Amino acid sequence: MTWRISFVVLILSFTACKEEKIVKIDVIEQAKKNIETNYLIEVDELLKIVKEPNIKILDFRKSEFYKKEHIKGALNIWRTDLEDASYPYKGMMAGKEQMETLLGRLGVNKSDTIIIYDDNGLCDSSRLWWILQNYDFTNVRLFHGGIAAWKLHNGAISTEVPLVQKTLFKLPEKPSMKYYGSKEEMLEAITNKTLILDTRTTDEFTGKRQKNGASKGGRIPNSISIDWSVAVDYNGDKKIKSIEELDKIYKKFGVSKNDTIIVYCHSGVRSAHTTFVLTQLLAYKNVKNYDGSWTEWSNFDQAPIQQDSITSLFK
């Protein structure tokens, strides 16, 4: 009788391990499927649809690079186009009316799909993706590999600025702001044991480096340092790493997919990329990107900070 019980236990244990392995594989396979079908677009797919009239390509690089060469038909935007200049500090997300004006100027219709690329591992592109998600415009794809991948596959390059017909673009009256994090939410996160990720460099995190726009160096209390660029092959093709690699990087924080995570950087750009990786590729459900990030936080004397070293100002 004893050997029968042991045999049954062994079988059940083997079955449980097998089922657990299947679940883990299913999660990874689903994540891979998300990459293929949702917000990332690869060069072979873009080549097929680039000439379609409802495709609007945005080159998210500084104008001097755009003028030198860009994907044929692409229009140029930069970070200042997405900033609300009414604040006493830089980098805050543009309001709904400003975004409507911008999209209208770019000739975007609601039925269009916006393709965004940059030369920085989709960091800047992710900021626009994040803003559009908050305002509930989801017809947007991030071009994986950018202009380097495009040229490698003989995609058409141009120096001409295309003419567009302006549109009257309207966003929903009451947008969800589903990935938006505020200063008030960050203050609450400090005290309720929410996982706070600082996606800047180590020098910025410790306070050794103070970037322009911040009034002081340091970090938000209880935050954990993880440079946004660990998610991409930054010294190579700048593409996002595999799901397996990403899972190893972020699971070390020991939170479930349903736990709240709030991320920040200097001005909410790099942390927008981490928000994209966590929500769209790793299926975390409750991630907020703190819009003002360190730039806003450091400009409020009442906001608590931590600092490891004396700061110096770098441009």
Supply database-style keywords.
315 residues; alpha/beta; Oxidized Rhodanese, domain 1; five-stranded parallel sheet; 11 helices; 14 strands; globular; disordered N terminus; disordered C terminus
What does this molecule look like?
The protein has 315 residues and is of the alpha/beta class. It has 11 helices and 14 strands. Helix 5 links the parallel strand 5 (113-117) and strand 6. Helix 5 crosses helix 10 (270-281). The longest helix is centred in the first third of the chain and has 36 residues, at 2-37. 37% of the residues are buried.
Judging from the principal axes of the Cα atoms, what is the shape?
A: globular
**CATH C-level class of the largest domain:** Alpha Beta
Q: Would you identify the CATH architecture of the largest domain? A: 3-Layer(aba) Sandwich
Radius of gyration over all CA atoms, rounded: 22 Å
SSE order, as H and E?
HEHEHEEHEHEHEEHEHEEHEHEHE
Helix percent band: 25-40%
Distance between the termini: 76 Å
Q: Quick one: CATH superfamily of the largest domain?
A: Rhodanese-like domain
User: Given the structure, what is the number of helices?
Assistant: 11
Number of strands: 14
Low-confidence stretches: 1-28, 30-37, 311-315
What percent of residues are in strands? 15-25%
Q: How many domains comprise the coordinates?
A: 2
Please tell me the overall pLDDT.
89
